Each structure stands twice: as C-alpha cells, then as structure tokens.
Amino acid sequence: xxxxxxxxxxxxxxxxxxxxxxxxxxxxxxxxxxxxxxxxxxxxxxxxxxxxxxxxxxxxxxxxxxxxxxxxxxxxxxxxxxxxxxxxxxxxxxxxxxxxxxxxxxxxxxxxxxxxxxxxxxxxxxxxxxxxxxxxxxxxxxxxxxxxxxxxxxxxxxxxxxxxxxxxxxxxxxxxxxxxxxxxxxxxxxxxxxxxxxxxxxxxxxxxxxxxxxxxxxxxxxxxxxxxxxxxxxxxxxxxxxxxxxxxxxxxxxxxxxxxxxxxxxxxxxxxxxxxxxxxxxxxxxxxxxxxxxxxxxxxxxxxxxxxxxxxxxxxxxxxxxxxxxxxxxxxxxxxxxxxxxxxxxxxxxxxxxxxxxxxxxxxxxxxxxxxxxxxxxxxxxxxxxxxxxxxxxxxxxxxxxxxxxxxxxxxxxxxxxxxxxxxxxxxxxxxxxxxxxxxxxxxxxxxxxxxxxxxxxxxxxxxxxxxxxxxxxxxxxxxxxxxxxxxxxxxxxxxxxxxx
Length: 501
Prior knowledge:
Keywords: DNA-binding, Metal-binding, Nucleus, Transcription, Transcription regulation
Distance between the termini: 49 Å
GO molecular function: DNA binding; DNA-binding transcription factor activity, RNA polymerase II-specific; zinc ion binding
Radius of gyration: 30 Å
Structural class: mainly alpha
Order of helices and strands: HHHHHHHHHHHHHHEEHHHH
GO biological process, one term: DNA-templated transcription
Largest sheet: 2 strands, antiparallel
Protein name: Zn(2)-C6 fungal-type domain-containing protein
Number of domains: 3
Shape: globular
C-alpha cells in the first residue's frame, strides 16, 4: 500500500490560499530521494546476494515491459521476455526520472526554441522571395525534410540563417522578462487591435503579445461582461497616456490576464505548459498594482476589479469572488458620488457619463450572475443610471466582430445594441433571483404561480423586442458569442413552468 507523502518545503498547504497564488520556482523543491534498493553500479544490473535475498524495485523496465505495462524484474533477459521469446532491451535514456535524461531533454528544447527564434525573426525581416516560399511551406505544414530540401535548393540569407539556427547559439537579445517561446502561428498572427506593452505592463515588452491578448479579450469576453468603452480604452492605451481616466496599468494587466483564457499562445502561461498558470503572471501584477492603489474607487480601478473577480472565479476561487463582490458593492456608490455633473468639454463629459453607465451596469451584471451561482438574493440595488447604448445612434451602429485568435472572417454586428438588450435581461434576472431565493419562502402556491407567470410575461415581451435575427428559434439566427449568451440566459419556452416545478 503506498504511503502518504509528506508536504514538501515551499509547497502550498492542502487548502489553496485565497489570494493570488505564486507558484514556487522549480529550484525551491528538494531533489528526489534515492530509492531504497536501487542499484547504482555502473553495470546497472542487480547483484546476487547469497546470504540474504532482498526484493528490489527495478529502477528501469525494459522496453517490452513498458509497452505491455508489466512488472519487469530487470534481469537480462527479464522473465517476461524470456518466457515470450522477445528481445529484451533496456534504454536508460528513456527514463524521464534520471537527471541526465531530463537535462538532455531540456537542452534539446532550448536548442529548438532558439532555432525557431532565429528562423522566425529572419523571416520577418527578409523581403526575399524565398522567404515567402518558405512561409508557404510552413503554412501548409510541410514535413521538415521538404523544408530542408527547399533551403538546400535556394541558397541565400534565409537559408543561411536557418542553418546557423540549427547550431547551439544563444537566443537573440531583447526577449523581455519572459524567455521567448515563439510559435509558428506568430508568422501569420494579425491581431484585431494593435497596442503597445509599455508603459502598461512590466510582465513583457512584446507589443505583439499584448496586442494578441487585448484582441482576444475584446473579441471573446468584452461584450459578455462589458466593463469599459473599448474605443476610449484603446485610444488611451495606444497613446501611452498614463493620465487618462480610461486606461491604467492595473486595468491593462487585468485585461491581459483575462485575455490569456482565450488564447493558446505559449506566453499566456506563467509556466510553459502548465494550464494552472494561465494568465497568472498578469493577474499577480494586477493584484500588486491593486494593493498599491489602496483599493481607491477610481473608474479604472472599479473596471479592472470587476475583471479580477471573474478571473478568480475562472481559477476556482469562488470564495475570493464572493468576498470581492461585497467590496464592489461598497466601492460602486463611492465611485458614483465622484461622477462629474458637468464638464468644460461636452465630448469628454459625454464619454465620462457613458463610462459611468457602463461600469455601474457591469457591477450589476456581475453581482446578479454570481448571485445565481451562489443561490443568494440580490444584496445591492438596481443601477441608478440608464442602461448604456439606449439611443438610436448606438442601437443602429454596426461594428465588425472578429473570431480572432481563431480563423474566420469578420461579421458586422450591432454589438452595443446587443449589450443593451443584455442589460435589460439582467433586470429580469435580478427579479428572478429575489423571487426564488427570498420571496418564494413567504408565498403560498397560488402566489408563487402568479409571480412566476408575471415574470414570464415580462421576459417574453423583452424577448420579442429583440431583432429576429438574434432570436435563437429564428431561421436567420446569427451565431456569435453575444447572441449565444442572450439565448443561453433566455427561456422562451416558459419561465413560470420552470420556476414552479
């Protein structure tokens, strides 16, 4: 029976901490202990003992036993191979537990990473026709042998650079704080939005990576949980304006951390290949900036804080999200009291007014959505400001939506109008919460039925007000994230039946 292992130094306790988790570096973990009974002789085989027979664990199994997943006694040949008449081969280099094998594998990966770095940078900089031909080979996933044959047949700067990349040379400089792990897909990566890394984050200096993550966020998350006016945010970020009320390092790092959940880019992970570290590097920087800001109720702080609440939920820290919602309920009225009633510039005044509308409704949607998950009635009042994008100008506006970072053509959508419909839906959602989690306990059966039917009627009236091409049961239904979200939260078949049952 296997014994329970003691907690390692530097390892977190069994109960995960509520705050941002910083994974310990690999160097902080102790070296694995020597297995008792493991043979360390140069021959690598067990020696006989005429006085006492001690059962020993084989430090490595032969390839046949590994394939068949059978216990190997490490003889030459082993019992299994002897009985079955198979060739018995031991290959210590395939044992991933050995330091030498791990080091060799790490060296191979480092060399491959450096080679890819140099090839990709050379392809980006070279205008030669052969670079375009090589790119076509890569795009159609040609085998390595075909690529090498092409390089041999087309001598030139790209071919020479590629051959030099195959030698153990150091990676090019300027990789930033995170070691560059470029993917072939970066050659054709064309983010929807282009924004700089500086002066917004210290996690990376890579403008392309930051543009990639911001684009992923805006395309796949932004109109689910709409926290800010994307136009004002992008303009301030592109200008590097640290004094702007619409962008801040805290908000940017919160956006980048959430954007990592919609990307498979190698640098979306704090630790390469560790799914649990997705977006953690940006989350930790945002958490540090939040601490330095002393939780001040500024516009960008509240906007970024709502994103951090969802990031905590995405990583399984529901208690943190629940506690943070309580803090958000305190901060939101403080922020609204700072709302300017007038301004010298009408354009700025209108932008600020709309930004306050957006963030108040975002807080309401977050609170309502989490309340449904936590099975609790709403604890904060409904928004005091009108839902954003209510005017005809916004309801008629078409905006190109792209599935980036996935491949696909842009689609013209009334994104602001769709979000306005979402806000109206969440008014009913909070009423449903109040009814189910608070009022139902005080009602008799008839009162429950009447209350449910009344909400059902209101919700169906709302659903019929939504354009037909955004109704899931219509033949011309437009299948994009925002319309799917509307359909998911709507029950056209009858709310009263669902609630009373």
